[in-house]
Design brief:
167 residues; alpha+beta; 5 helices; 29% helix
Length: 167
């Protein structure tokens, strides 16, 4: 299976310390099976930070999800209350219950798979954080949204599963 990462640089070696915190599934290296989605991200990153859009291509064994040596959290393809709580907690700078299974600040999950909180959903999260929406209202605004997918890798053991095959 191929996974794509949109950037403004050819990533020679994945450095998890360079990944930004407070992302949907925590600080990690994010990819997608959707080439077009990664191309859009590459364009966005290049527009914001300069440089040219670059699509980094990786291969991973399709059965990686069954790897019993890693702790893998799989939300599937649909948004859910569990997914929304997880994303809300990981995006929050105030959340401190790191041992809670509803967050990944401590990288308890080597890999997390699930929907992306797109710009519309990010707005709902901000409105919730600012007290403009209840959690239930935020969730109801997300339930019927069409989502795209993401795979986030949070540990060196998980990164070892990725084989770079091109740019």
């Amino acid at each position: 299976m191929f996974l794509y990462h949109g950037s403004n640089t050819d990533i020679k070696e994945i450095n998890l310390a360079m990944c930004r915190p407070y992302k949907d599934f925590g600080q990690g290296f994010y990819l997608t099976v959707m080439k077009e989605q990664a191309e859009k991200m590459a364009n966005r990153v290049a527009r914001i930070y300069g440089g040219s859009p670059i699509l980094n291509i990786y291969e991973i064994d399709e059965n990686f999800i069954r790897n019993t040596n890693l702790n893998i959290k799989n939300f599937g393809t649909e948004t859910s209350e569990e997914w929304a709580r997880f994303v809300k907690n990981n995006r929050s700078r105030e959340y401190t219950d790191f041992s809670n299974p509803e967050c990944n600040f401590d990288n308890k999950y080597d890999i997390v798979v699930g929907p992306i909180a797109d710009d519309d959903m990010a707005l709902l999260f901000r409105q919730f954080e600012n007290g403009m929406l209840t959690f239930e209202k935020m969730l109801s605004g997300m339930i019927y949204k069409k989502t795209t997918n993401q795979y986030s890798f949070h540990t060196q053991e998980a990164i070892k599963l990725l084989k770079k095959v091109g740019v």
